Amino acid sequence: MAWSVALACASAGEPTEVFRPGLVPDPAAAATIARGLYPADTLTETGDTVLDFALWPYEDELFVGAFDRALLLCDRRLFHLDDDARRIADTAAAALPGSLCGVLVLHTVIHGCWFRWYESGELRREVFVTAEDGVVVDQGERLPAERPFWRPIDEGAPDVPLPFDPEEFGLALAAAHMFGRGIADRGADGFLPLELPLRRFKHA
Length: 204
Hints:
- By secondary structure, the chain is of the alpha+beta class.
- It is 26% helix and 32% strand.
- It is built from six helices and nine strands; from the N terminus they run βααβαββαββββααβ.
- It has helices at residues 15-18, 27-37, 51-54, 83-94, 147-154, 166-179; strands at residues 5-11, 43-50, 61-66, 70-74, 100-107, 112-119, 122-130, 134-140, 197-203.
- Strands 2-9-3-4-1-5-6-7-8 form a nine-stranded antiparallel beta sheet, sandwiched between helices.
- 40% of the residues are buried.
């Protein structure tokens, strides 16, 4: 399956503890976060949906899921990998005190993965890889889920073309560090990340 994803996911605690059945969304908190991201814009709330639908929004859309101990944010502006994308990522990472936050961008056209990892609002890891250009950014200490992917390069293989699949790489990071399970995997407890509820906003 080919994935396009522009997602920030923060949890105040280990994801395996936070993401489980019974999470109740807070629409008012979602609206506060959305308007804080774009204070100069007019944002209109257009209803509710689930993460499966929200992962790759239209350019004029924003999706926010606010919960007691978790935050989800889907915004295609993350794809631009520019100062505004970093602002959005930093804002999501700082929204929950003491949280862990992963920011994942996958795009099928460039066949690449951009991932940022925060602990208590501090950026600890940033990596950007594409199948064609290899390793573009590799900063900070590698996370445990990354290590099997890097082994060929560490053993002397060239990074162009990239010796691993960027999508598999990104989804492995999401499973290990963002949700505590595969984003499309329903656990024995019945919880499926793709069914998480989000509030939908449209830029005027």
